[in-house]
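ok trying again, last paste got cut off:
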Amino acid sequence: MQFQDTAGDYRYCPACGHDLESRQLKAGDPKRLVCTKCGFVLYLDPKVAVGTIIAMADRRIVLVRRAIEPGYGRWVFPGGYVDRGEVVRAAALREAREEAGIDIRLDGLVSIYSYPGRPPVIIVYAATATAGELQHDDESLEIGTFREDEIPWEDLAFRSTHDALRDYYTGVLHAHCR
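nice, full thing came through this time. structure:
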């Protein structure tokens, strides 16, 4: 399934204010929203998010239980959207500080996740806590640390959360233990 721009949420041209319509501009490409007057093409690009699987000194990882939608009440590792012009690694450090109250060291890339029909591209890092005390922010109901066998696998917020944790435990963590 290929994500296609639709006029559902966007009706008017941001350049001149006239109507947008869905058009096939090039064979093989998805339809694009195009202004009926000035020809402006509105590209709905992916949204970049970043997450960190943070290991504490006891090798337990940090998860927060979301207090916002989507995924209200479900568990996820600290993360969020990358701001326009922000360096991805800096966003990972910022999100860990905001959502978990700690400073981290990025140890490496776990992987990059994207799914058909979904705009987010999620970049997930393995990290180690270096300073601070765990505390959640207003976007979380609670914060906790978990061993691999304690992770609430059936109560994770997103497919990318599950996939990244699986990849972390089968690849990144075991590579560091050898």
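cool. The longest strand covers residues 120-132. The radius of gyration is 19 Å.
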